[in-house]
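[Discussion] Sanity-checking designs against the backbone

I'm trying to build intuition for which residues belong where. Below is a structure token string of 378 positions. I'd appreciate it if someone posts a full sequence so I can compare it with mine line by line.
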């Protein structure tokens, strides 16, 4: 499979020295693709800039219809996309299909949000003056996305950007270029106007040039940062199950994966013994094998690197309340695995794990638009 750039509504073929490899079978080359440079980034940003006036001023129904069509197409092709994702990134087949379905639902959700952008009318302190606020699109948004959720994260960044009238340039992770290209192809085939959505493939210099580009109005980047802890003082079996799921679901490669478990001393030995037994029983294998419970790490370089988040397991309402109020985290899980979040609510961390407004759900409008206040006198 040879992948192109997507620039200004065109598939741009080029020499393809880079490859993505199936981590379940490293002799299997999933795709080859070009190593873009500043020229491709400049062309994509220029196309996005030229497309912005018409796209941002179009009826919100135009944007809603496109996103709804993209979402429906992803859902209709979820099995195909999920299998490609599993083959390229290493999630199990079931996890890959689940992520594809999540991406489809994200696009459908933001298709609705395109129609719900609103403002406020306020009373002025001065007579005969009207004051109102409304939200406007930012312009060209650069998206730099990781390999660990290679269709869901591009979806939750691109969908709100497009819904609120921005144009997009995507730089996906090289490890999972094929599934990102599949998403770009769907957006293209569903009728995105030329320049509204662009994708440039290549090594880190592509993302660096995109992030620093003078004609890019906003950049959304997702990478990794340590922030996790897991606390368990509840029913032992339940606490172990939550820790196991939080640490090993999707090969422990989600940004919400647990990396640390804090266990109270009275149950420490039993907890460690039980968790070790259950971890040893998990079946590691090829991503597309239905019997596999843990797929391979996405690459050799990522083999020992898992992303992290925060959770607690407790039967005490007092401890739960204290933890929720006092832990310094953007997201808290109580009696749930850390690996699993809803697409219609805000997502993000604190301190080193997040910067700027939240992503996803109703909070996404905060990043992808700016507020304009208007005063009108008689």
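Best answer:
Here's mine. Compare freely.
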């Amino acid at each position: 499979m040879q992948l192109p750039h997507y620039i200004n509504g065109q598939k741009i073929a080029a020499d393809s020295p880079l490859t993505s490899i199936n981590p379940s079978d490293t002799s299997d080359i999933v795709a080859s693709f070009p190593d873009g440079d500043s020229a491709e980034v400049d062309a994509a940003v220029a196309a996005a800039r030229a497309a912005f006036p018409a796209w941002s001023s179009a009826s919100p129904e135009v944007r809603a219809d496109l996103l709804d069509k993209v979402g429906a197409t992803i859902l209709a092709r979820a099995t195909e996309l999920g299998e490609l994702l599993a083959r390229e990134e290493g999630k199990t087949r079931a996890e890959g299909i689940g992520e594809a379905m999540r991406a489809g639902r994200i696009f459908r959700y933001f298709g609705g949000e395109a129609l719900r952008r609103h403002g406020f009318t306020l009373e002025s302190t001065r007579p005969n003056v009207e004051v109102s606020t409304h939200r406007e699109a930012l312009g060209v948004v650069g998206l730099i996305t990781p390999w660990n959720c290679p269709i869901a994260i591009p979806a939750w960044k691109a969908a709100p950007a497009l819904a609120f009238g921005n144009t997009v340039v995507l730089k996906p992770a090289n490890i999972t270029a094929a599934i990102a290209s599949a998403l770009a192809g769907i957006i293209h085939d569903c009728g995105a106007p030329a320049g509204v959505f662009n994708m440039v493939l290549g090594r880190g210099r592509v993302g660096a040039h995109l992030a620093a580009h003078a004609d890019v109005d906003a950049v959304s980047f997702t990478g990794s940062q340590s922030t996790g802890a897991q606390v368990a003082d509840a029913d032992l079996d339940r606490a172990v199950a939550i820790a196991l799921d939080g640490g090993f679901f999707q090969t422990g490669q989600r940004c919400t994966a647990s990396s640390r478990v804090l266990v109270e001393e009275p149950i420490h030995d039993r907890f460690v013994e039980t968790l070790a037994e259950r971890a040893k029983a998990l079946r590691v294998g090829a991503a597309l094998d239905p019997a596999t419970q843990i797929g391979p790490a996405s690459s050799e370089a990522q083999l020992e690197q898992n992303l992290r988040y925060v959770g607690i397991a407790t039967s005490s309402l007092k401890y739960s309340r204290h933890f929720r109020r006092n832990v310094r985290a953007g997201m808290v899980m109580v009696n749930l695995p850390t690996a699993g979040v809803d697409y219609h609510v805000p997502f993000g961390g604190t301190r080193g794990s997040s910067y700027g407004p939240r992503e996803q759900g109703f909070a996404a409008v905060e990043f992808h638009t700016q507020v304009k206040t208007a005063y009108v006198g008689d």
